[in-house]
Every structure is written in C-alpha cells, then in structure tokens.
Amino acid sequence: MSGTVDVNGPSNARGSGECSAPVERSAASAFAAPAGLMARRFRGFLPVVIDVETGGFNAATDALLEIAAVLIDMDAGGELKRGATVSYHVQPFPGARLDPAALTVNGIDPFHPLRPALPERDALQRVFREVRHALRTYDCRRAILVGHNAAFDLTFLNAAIARAEVKRNPFHPFSCFDTATLAGAALGQTVLAKAVTVAGMPWDASSAHSAVYDAERTADLFCHVCNVMRASYARAEERACALGWLAAPPVEAITDDPRMAT
C-alpha cells in the first residue's frame, strides 16, 4: 500500500499565458501544452487529491494512520485524468488517541507487526516530494487539496504538518476543492459511493475506507465533474480573456499568505 507509481508525468513544456481562443482547442494549437493548460485551468493551482484514515475525528488529538495522494494529470486537449498514487501507512504520534470505533470502520491495526508505517514527518516529506515534482511539471505555483469532505482531510494534514514541523508545505493552507460539494451540484449526490455510481463508475464497498481506494475514487469523481464542465469553463475563459484577466498574473501571486511560503 506504500510507495510511488508512475510519477514522471507529462513533459515540462510551458504555455504562453496569452488569450486567443477558448480552452477546448485542437492538440495542434499554440496553447496545447499540458503545463500551460493546467496552470491556466486552476489559476496557477495544481489539484492534488488527499485522503487520510485516522484514529478519530479530532485532528489535534487523534492519530493520522494512512495518507494517500493522487496526482491529477491533463492531456493535450485539456481533459483531466487520474494520475499517480502515492500512499503511506503512518505511525501514531506519541500520545495520539485511537478511537476503537474509528479503527472498526477503517479496519486498521496501528500496531500490527507487519504494518510498514513511517513517522509522520517521513510520510509527509515523501508525499510532498512527489507533489513538488508535479508542480514543476505543470508549472503551477501551489498545490490545492481535493478531498471528499475536504475540510476533514485538510485539517488532519495541517495538524500533522504542525506536529512534524514540516517547513516546506506545497499545499494552500486553507483553500480546497470539495468533491462532496461538486458532486452535489453536478450529480445530485453528496455521498462518495453514490456520486461515483451515478457518474457511471464502479464502486467496491469492500475496498472503501482505505486511503488509497477513497483517494482514487475521489480523483475519478473530480476529473469527471471538471470534464463535463469544460464547455462552461471555455465560455468563462473567453469572458476572462475579454476582460483582460488572463493577461495578468493571478492575484495570489502578489498577495500570498506568508504561511504559504516555500
């Protein structure tokens, strides 16, 4: 369950950032480079799906037990697809609370002798290394967490970062993309299993509550919703171009929160 899969990603070609035509254009067009398209699609942010399995609901007191990160790729036509998965078992931090009810749901035995768990700092640094590689690949400035009920995952991630004193956090510290919200608006379903199913994708209930499985299904759902909204995005991009917004750097490039410094 731990390790890295296929993290090379697409080439490091860069887009010009200039406005010309709507984003849905042929691969032969001047703005077909995936790096430029990805950075432009989310205003310099790179969506990365994070799912955590924990020993409870309180990020300050309860253990982080698993973390999975799924990268989001984009093809030359601007379509999103699930990329590489990175995942690690995590050792409970000293004094961490382990709620038996939570362990029953996720099926984790934190102290199993064959569980290849890493300290929080090591697990986070390994995940962040792959995220930073993806940021360079797509010429993005910052990662933004994608999650199903994303506030939960972001809260646990930030708590672990603070405990482990990790200084180079590639993620925005408070913004996120929540697929429960996106699926509720696009599909009329907010439960992950139901949203995935009505989107026409398979769901294996026996694999749920694994950080890897939940993160990968969340990534599939995020890509699906974004892809079906491409026409709406293309119209919005045309209007943004007409207003001159895309010719200038994103506002966050000038007004970043100092906690976001890398």
Could you characterize the architecture of this molecule?
The protein has helices spanning 34-41, 100-106, 120-138, 150-164, 179-187, 192-198, 211-228, 230-243, 252-255, and strands at residues 3-4, 45-54, 64-74, 80-90, 117-118, 142-147, 171-178. Helix 5 crosses helix 7 (211-228). Strands 1, 2, 3, 4, 5, 6 and 7 form a 7-stranded mixed sheet that branches. Helix 4 links the parallel strand 6 and strand 7. The chain is an alpha/beta fold. The chain is built from 9 helices and 7 strands; from the N terminus they run βαβββαβαβαβααααα. It has a single domain (3-260), classed as Ribonuclease H-like superfamily/Ribonuclease H (Nucleotidyltransferase, domain 5). The longest helix is centred in the middle third of the chain and has 19 residues, at 120-138.
The CATH topology turns out to be: Nucleotidyltransferase, domain 5
| First-to-last CA distance | 29 Å
Quickly name the level 1 CATH class. Alpha Beta
Q: What is the total number of structural domains?
A: 1
Low-confidence stretches: 1-18, 20-33, 251-262
Order of helices and strands: EHEEEHEHEHEHHHHH
**What would CATH call the homologous superfamily?**
Ribonuclease H-like superfamily/Ribonuclease H
Note the main sheet: 7 strands, mixed
Proportion of strand residues: 15-25%
Task: Report the C-alpha radius of gyration, rounded.
Answer: 19 Å
Identify the overall geometry: globular
